[in-house]
């Protein structure tokens, strides 16, 4: 009897499975196939064109001894930590504010979310103008009488990555706010009633009750933020193009420049493989928490 039910399960939703075949095939051929191809060629001496002339780990040794790559990793660390902390904190505070059913909530939510509709190129150009010392924030403050005021992060190699961070937060925090707001709206109203009856301060209810209950929402937001951090490219190109000098280089720009400007495919493949590894370091724990945890707790 059990054997008879197996074919029935396979035939269940057969039309949907057939319809999904082209997408699955495309994903396997293009994504998985190209990923394997890239990893294999990262161990070769490919220059202008790919070639199977294996050189072992030479490309990776050169990669990690290149100052530009090391600076790009350092910048990614600063940008990543800043994005994670400020996006989650500011996004949650905004979500908690909107969850109070304030007046004109839809208007406020639209205004905050609007920057996310812009491309990174547009965002980068806008903030390049805003942070320009000749006609941006510095110029406006000095015109008010504060002649010694200095605010030119995009022209200071020591803090240029924080200028990029400001633009990234302006664009992406609204989207994180919407994700966290959906999690807050899923909290049972009885929890708030019980906390009020017990006289528990609202901040303690958020910290010790609501936030732990929103763990899946926070994990989803964390994955989205991390994926955006690792592949950040166009925002940097639009704002600084990696400058001053190489002070605002990021890994994605290093990959592009290696492959298309330096015509060193092997080096670009090695750098992109390291970026893929960093993505997997984030995705594997997330997949385990989301799916493994559900399976064990069923």
Automatic annotation (TrEMBL):
<feature type="transmembrane region" description="Helical">
    <location>
        <begin position="205"/>
        <end position="230"/>
    </location>
</feature>
<protein>
    <submittedName>
        <fullName>Putative ABC transporter permease protein AmyD</fullName>
    </submittedName>
</protein>
<dbReference type="GO" id="GO:0055085">
    <property type="term" value="P:transmembrane transport"/>
</dbReference>
<feature type="transmembrane region" description="Helical">
    <location>
        <begin position="110"/>
        <end position="130"/>
    </location>
</feature>
<feature type="transmembrane region" description="Helical">
    <location>
        <begin position="20"/>
        <end position="40"/>
    </location>
</feature>
<feature type="transmembrane region" description="Helical">
    <location>
        <begin position="76"/>
        <end position="98"/>
    </location>
</feature>
<feature type="transmembrane region" description="Helical">
    <location>
        <begin position="269"/>
        <end position="289"/>
    </location>
</feature>
<keyword id="KW-1133">Transmembrane helix</keyword>
<feature type="domain" description="ABC transmembrane type-1">
    <location>
        <begin position="73"/>
        <end position="286"/>
    </location>
</feature>
<dbReference type="InterPro" id="IPR000515">
    <property type="entry name" value="MetI-like"/>
</dbReference>
<dbReference type="GO" id="GO:0005886">
    <property type="term" value="C:plasma membrane"/>
</dbReference>
<dbReference type="InterPro" id="IPR051393">
    <property type="entry name" value="ABC_transporter_permease"/>
</dbReference>
<dbReference type="Pfam" id="PF00528">
    <property type="entry name" value="BPD_transp_1"/>
</dbReference>
<comment type="similarity">
    <text>Belongs to the binding-protein-dependent transport system permease family.</text>
</comment>
<dbReference type="InterPro" id="IPR035906">
    <property type="entry name" value="MetI-like_sf"/>
</dbReference>
<feature type="transmembrane region" description="Helical">
    <location>
        <begin position="159"/>
        <end position="184"/>
    </location>
</feature>
<keyword id="KW-1003">Cell membrane</keyword>
<keyword id="KW-0813">Transport</keyword>
<keyword id="KW-0472">Membrane</keyword>
<keyword id="KW-0812">Transmembrane</keyword>
